Amino acid sequence: MIVRIMGEGQVRVADSHFAELNKLDDELLAEMENGDGPGFRHTLHALLEKVRELGTPLPDDSLEPSELILPPVDATLEQVRDMLSDDGLIPG
Question: Which of 8, 11, 41, 59 has the most C-beta neighbours closer than 10 Å?
Fold first, then answer.
């Protein structure tokens, strides 16, 4: 799957890592629902780091469609809330 981190670029992440990323996404969603700002910030950072760790960066000039778009590391709780679906940032 191609993942875009807003403001950074795209990475290719194997579908086999989806469950691991979805676990962090579930934590992020729970923290947002509870208004846990510090927890939200920590988990967002952890999610983006995990995507960077597991993924392979695509060249800056690559224009492949992103299957998943994640907010930048400095996104606010409110900005991320606007991006959410019922499943969180990562569907499923």
Answer: 11
